[in-house]
Please model this.
Amino acid sequence: MSAKKILFSTLFILALAFGVSSQVKADYVPKIYAQNLSVSNVSNGQIKGQFTIWNSENYYFPELVYTMRLFKGTDFNTMQLVDTQVSGILSVPPKGTVAESFTYQYPKNIASGNYTFRVQVVTAQGTELGWSDKAVSLTGQNNFLNILGDFSRVLSDGQKYYPLEGVNISPKSTAIGYLKIQNLGAATTVIPQIKIFKRQYNMSLVKQYNDSLITFSKGETKEINLTFPQYDTPESYLAEVKFYNNNQQVSGIQYFRWVVQGAGGKILYIRTDKDSYMAGENMTITIDSVGPPDFSTIKGAGLDVTVYNQDKNVVYTVSKNIELTASLLSTTISVPVKADLFHPIISAQITDKGKVLDQQKTTLPVVSTQAKQLQKNSQITTFLIYLLIIAIISTVITFCVKSNKFKAFLKRKKLIK
Model:
């Protein structure tokens, strides 16, 4: 990746962190990049290829995902989002790379033409990181509605907001998604499919449902209002809207975001300096958190951290008081390791007046040479313990069998002659 591209990527990521990603005033965004994207084959409605993920940080981020996204067009300023798919969980070691292969099935009803295919790294808490693009020429069935994204808005209490602005609304208010959609093909009837996520499209799915049927005549452009469910839990909500016909996607994606006001907090990252530790070492854990999405402040919130070993036994607990604001807060904890530790589980939660605002758990994979050796040592120790137990049981049984009293007991029970 060129220096110019890295700079541009960084600026774009920061813009996401400040705006799209749930109104977080991010002071820290992990420098993790998608690189060397290559498309090896485009056929039968699939795009196949490879890319690498580079973690330039000194920390483990064990629960990353990557998204595969398709955009109509190749001009960055006019590209329209068609589809998003999220991969499984992966881990990239500090200063390390991971090679990934992918197969992406694109919607068959798209219009034939030039598209941009993107792979992008995303954290478990929805922060979008580095990406890589590749222009592709695709053939479709030319049966796609055109969402005129420049007109999309979130409506609430008689006011209009940009779709990803993240307007603050009260628990008693309602968010409405406004779209203008153009039908370039024959008359059709479609159904809006809506997914509501907490904060980001790779996070908890709050609700999934279909709205009412909508009929378009040939060449018709319609204005549509979609009323989203009302929620009283303080949170940043993201609605994903797509249109379907006969269970097939026939439009791109439009996202809408709004924030329900009230006390809240989020754990964004759980970072460690290594994936394993020997007895006598210190484990450094950094918890990055942020306060309510409505930019209010919570003083005296609690941060509780628990570390479990590879056998899921608690080896360390600590509680700290923190102040939650709209700015990112990094809390560093040093954990004294009393016994070899690999494949640990780190659990963290934020509380306010006894109420849990957020809780996250991450498991460090066995990646480094040290972690693999500690795992091997543990397996050998466990095997030797089992052998010792078997030997002790065999010795006891042999002794009992040779005992006259035991023999008499067995004869009475007619177990031996």
